[in-house]
Specification:
The chain has about 500 residues and is of the alpha/beta class. The chain folds into 2 domains: about 90 residues, 2-Layer Sandwich (Alpha-Beta Plaits); about 325 residues, TIM Barrel (Alpha-Beta Barrel). Helix content is about 30%, strand content about 15%. The protein is built from 16 helices and 21 strands. The strands form 7 sheets. Strands 9-19-18-16-15-12-11-10 form an 8-stranded parallel sheet. α11 links the parallel β18 and β19. α4 crosses α14 and α8 packs across α10. The protein is globular. The N and C termini lie far apart (about 60 Å). Bound molecules: iron/sulfur cluster (2 copies). One iron/sulfur cluster binds next to α2.
Length: about 500
């Protein structure tokens, strides 16, 4: 059935004086929103096709284009907004679940913006990171709570395998399939240069990227796409994906249009057919089952690799993490509800899960109270936007943070949230060869390395300002944080005092 007409969300505005009809916009827009009218010799626009990716705006040589949010589309109504009406019209026309991409855009509180960081004054002087050593290296994995010695007093060297990061940042799971070959190549090579890790997501590991194995975390998700012994062996660590912040409680979905020959070979699945990974792992219905999978993976890799368990931040996340910390996992990754995705049902993305700030604080508190905090390292994920978010996450208890959306933005993503269509005009979330080649991996590596280097400098400056010279001293140090405009309950969960206290 034809959907009813919906007002375009964006308007393409072209300055006729400046437009030189070079047709760059027509060539650059995979959504075919621009067209050349041969008869009248002028460019035409179809605003209904525009997703506001800014590709045409950025590449128009005379800056003749801008994209505006459409105004006054329906009669003003604070309850029945234009977006609400458009979504109903779409669903009434198609009978389908609404799909979207990237993170939750709704105006829920962003707790990072309500936390302030301390700085030394007079006593406990600050440290100048340019002149004094500032340790940003972290080791992720299970640690002994205390030094263990044998009967002759020698330290027992029984430390579980660790991941060494030169700075407490990792590139989060993004599968080959959801993102392009060139995006993966950029992440892999940048991780190698930076001495950190990138993550395959649930899409398997392309043959070309085995050489980056020592900087690769491979994922084992419910669909088991691309999982085989060589894949596990190639990696530095293995991540079991139980959940994802953007879509807690449901599985993965890669639209068939993105499953090309290479993606199908890497994932070991048919070409052109939607790849749906189930919501649960069908062999995991308890912590004991999870423990079995963890030890199966350790056994398969001779106990040489740390195992990460990734969960979505949900209501009882602290209790879940407590179980995982006792299950033999080395690292827990917690993904908050603002985390990105290549494709998720809109309703799930926007309404399910909880903010990473509250989840992280609750988990760190619980594991400390139970005396098992050193059993595992904690990775925080789900919209780390800057080095200050990173500092605050570490102070709330994270050992390091995954960044996904920020990494894609560094590669050129303009957050148009249309990844699921496979028409990413920036060559990132697409498999169409003519679009993939728009992302130059050389440039991608450089931009990712620049971003992480810049954040590391800022991290060192902020640590120095607090009088701290190592990540270890910052981790879980909530005295370095103060809340502003938060309720007693929020402060209690975050474990921080209000500003002025
Ligand atoms: S979708 Fe992107 S390239 Fe196409 S008209 Fe809109 S902003 Fe321009
Ligand atoms: S990756 Fe591409 S399609 Fe996805 S939000 Fe970014 S620019 Fe849009």
């Amino acid at each position: 059935m034809e959907p009813l007409f919906v007002y375009p969300e964006y308007e393409i505005v072209r300055d006729r004086e400046s437009c030189i009809t070079c047709r760059v916009c027509e060539r650059q827009c995979a959504n075919e929103a621009h067209r050349y009218d041969e008869f009248n010799r002028k460019m035409l626009s179809d605003s209904t096709k525009c997703v506001n990716c800014h590709r045409c705006v950025a590449l128009c040589p005379t800056h003749a284009l801008k994209i505006k949010k459409s105004e006054d589309t329906y009669k003003l109504n604070a309850n029945w907004t234009g977006d609400a009406l458009n979504e109903i019209y779409r669903q009434a026309g198609t009978g389908g679940v609404l799909l979207s991409s990237m993170g939750n855009p709704k105006p829920y509180p962003v707790y990072w913006d309500r936390l302030l960081v301390n700085a030394s004054q007079v006593t406990n002087p600050s440290i100048d990171p340019l002149r004094e050593p500032m340790e940003t290296t972290v080791y992720l994995g299970s640690k002994h709570a205390e030094i263990v010695r044998d009967e002759r007093g020698r330290i027992k060297d029984t430390l579980a395998p660790q991941l060494k990061l030169k700075t407490p940042i990792l590139f989060s799971a993004m599968s080959y399939g959801s993102i392009s070959y060139n995006a993966h190549a950029s992440l892999a090579r940048a991780a190698e240069q930076l001495g950190i890790y990138y993550n395959t997501g649930e899409g398997g590991l392309h043959r070309d990227f085995y050489k980056y194995g020592k900087n690769t975390i491979v994922q084992v998700a419910s669909g088991r796409f691309g999982v085989h012994p060589e894949y596990l062996e190639a990696a530095a660590a293995i991540e079991i994906k139980m959940g994802q912040g953007a879509k807690p409680g449901i599985g993965g979905h890669l639209p068939g249009a993105k499953i090309t020959d290479a993606v199908s070979t890497t994932r070991m699945i048919p070409k052109g057919v939607d790849a749906i990974s189930p919501a649960p792992h069908h062999d995991i219905y308890s912590i004991e089952d999870l423990r079995q999978l963890i030890f199966s993976l350790k056994e398969a890799t001779a106990y040489k690799k740390p195992v990460i368990v990734k969960i979505a931040a949900v209501h009882n996340v602290a209790a879940i993490a407590s179980g995982i910390a006792r299950s033999g996992a080395d690292i827990i990754a917690i993904d908050g509800f603002r985390g990105g995705t290549g494709a998720a049902p809109t309703r799930i993305r926007d309404n399910v899960g909880i903010p990473i700030e509250l989840a992280l604080a609750a988990v760190d508190t619980r594991l400390r109270e139970e005396g098992i905090r050193d059993n595992v390292s904690i990775l925080a994920a789900g919209s780390i936007r800057s080095s200050s978010d990173l500092v605050k996450a570490i102070a709330l208890g994270a050992d390091a943070c995954y960044i996904g959306t920020a990494a894609l933005v560094a590669l050129g993503c303009h957050l148009c949230r249309s990844c699921h269509t496979g028409k990413c005009n920036w060559g990132i979330a697409t498999q169409r060869p003519e679009l993939v080649k728009r992302l130059n991996p050389e440039m991608g590596v450089e931009r990712l390395v620049n971003l992480v280097t810049a954040w590391t400098h800022e991290l060192q400056e902020m640590m120095g300002g607090m009088g701290l010279n190592s990540i270890e001293a910052l981790r879980g140090n909530r005295l370095m944080l103060r809340g502003v405009g938060l309720t007693e309950k929020e402060l209690e969960i975050l474990g921080v005092k209000h500003a002025g206290e």
